[in-house]
Amino acid sequence: MRKKAILFLLFLLTLFQSMESFAKQRFPKPEFESAYTQPETLQPGPRYELLAYLDVLVLLSTLSLISWLILKKRSRKGVFWISIFSLAYFGFYREGCVCSIGAIQNVSLGLFYSAYTLPFTALAFFVIPLVFTLFYGRTFCAGVCPFGAMQDLVAIQPQKMGSRLNSVLGLLPYLYLGLAVLYAATGTDFIICRYDPFVGIFRLNASFGMFVFAGILLGSGVFIARPYCRFLCPYGVILNWFSRFSKKHMTITPANCIQCKLCENTCPYDAINIPITVKNPETKQELLKKFILICILIPVLIAAGGYTGSKLHTTLAEVNPRVRLAKAVMDPVKMQEKPESYEIKAFKSSGKPAKQLLEETNEILRKFYIGGWLLGGFMGLTFGLLIAGRLITNYNPDYVPNKGTCLSCNRCIEYCPVKV
Fold first, then answer.
1. What residue spans define the domains of the chain?
2. Which of the residues 81, 308, 336, 384 has an alpha carbon 20 to 30 A from that of 395?
């Protein structure tokens, strides 16, 4: 099946390139009667509006189809072929852009910077998967996201990881999400796009370091299923939240669970909740103690995290180019030791006083101080909820997917003997 998938992928890429060529022929470059030679553009031109709307239409179509395949047809093979299509279209053809993961930064910048015009496609790619997730679970992750599709195809011998290690590594996406929002909201940088390991593969233009990073992720993905999706993806955090409230969700069995245990070790993402019977129910006093502990612990962790983040705001702000410029301009010793950078030369040639640069820098630092409090508090809350989840025992009689972490890949349903 993998050979057929490769041939199908090549066919789709050829088809998409033909579509792009047709769009370009509709809007050809103007012809000049003189001997003027048109220069080659170094940066890609703006995407044709018609094709931008086509991207949104393709996203809606693939999400609708894969949701039907997962919930109604319960087809793992269908999810596989949707993954091939998404990898070809959203990955290699569209070169991983626009993507729902990177759209987090566009939305954050649009919310906190009024002068920024949020592109329609970025907003659509951010909102549409969330709407589908709220109704049908994480079907976007199953095979529509090209990053997840690429990792799913290389997961040949996935091994299960312990729940504790999963929980600890699962904190990283929350930190990544917080940093991405902070840097985008302050107009500093789009760190998700800058350090994206897979876009460089789609475009074949990444730095050596990013190629190595992507190689490590894909190589480890053979044995650790979807390492980026589970331990780095910031959009997966938001999908996790929405999926917990999904109206409909993939189920391992279409009818009553017969406790055959065949699905127990099939999920490479540790997203199946094992049945817990009420053999030793907790007393009211024990439950009350846990409740009081959680009520005290979470606010303390939020305050401690916020305070730590505020203390690190200067370090976090050094990523901002204006802050780095001000630091270099205000340090005459370093100015003499090292040759002037282009940024310093440009600032001097602008004629702006150093006092104005200092005022701008102080305003940026003020934003990072507030952002540091919020980021630290967010991480404190996340850590507190993780501890609370370990303290609280959820009793469930059947094998069911964890609605938050389940990627709706349909791997487990192949092992369920109940078909009707």
1. 2-13+51-262+398-415, 278-391
2. 384
The position carrying tokens 């959680």 is: 294
In the predicted model, is pLDDT for residue 19 greater than 60? no
Pair of tokens at residue 238: 């938001």
Quick check: 192 and 102 in contact, CB under 8 A? yes
CA 207, 211, 214, 220 torsion-angle sign:
negative
Largest CA distance in the chain: 90
**Residue 273: what are its φ and ψ, rounded to 5°?**
-80, 120
Beta bridge mates, 401: 272
Question: Which tokens in the block code for residue 194?
Answer: 């800058």
Residues in CB range of 171: below 8 A, 6 or more apart: 379, 382, 383, 386
pLDDT at 13: 57
Distance in angstroms (rounded) separating the CA atoms of residues 392 and 404: 16
72, with CB counted inside 10 A (0-12, 13-18, 19+), is exposed
Structure tokens at 228: 């980026």
Residue 286 CB-density burial (10 A; 0-12 exposed, 13-18 middle, 19+ buried): exposed
Q: Which two tokens stand for residue 9?
A: 């992928």
Is residue 7 within 8 A of residue 88, CB to CB? The reply is no
DSSP state of 1: -
- Asked if residue 144 lies in contact with residue 86, where contact means CB atoms within 8 angstroms, the answer is yes
Q: How many CB atoms lie within 10 A of CB 372?
A: 25
Q: How many CB atoms lie within 10 A of CB 324?
A: 15
Report angle CA 17, 22, 27 to the nearest 5 degrees.
125
Beta carbons of 211 and 123 less than 8 angstroms apart: no
Read off the pTM: 0.86
Instruction: Encode burial over 248-279: b for 16+ CB neighbours within 10 A, e otherwise.
Output: ebbbbbeeebeeeeebeebbbbbbbbeeeeee
Backbone torsions φ then ψ of 61, nearest 5 degrees: -65, -45
Of 347 and 13, more confident:
347
How many Cα atoms are found within 13 Å in the side-chain-facing hemisphere of 78?
18
Does the pLDDT of residue 131 top 70, yes or no?
Answer: yes
C-alpha 198, offset from chain centre: 12
**What pLDDT does 296 receive?**
96
Q: What is the pLDDT of residues 72-101, one digit of tens each?
A: 999 999 999 999 999 999 999 998 888 999
Distance of alpha carbon 156 from alpha carbon 56, whole angstroms: 31
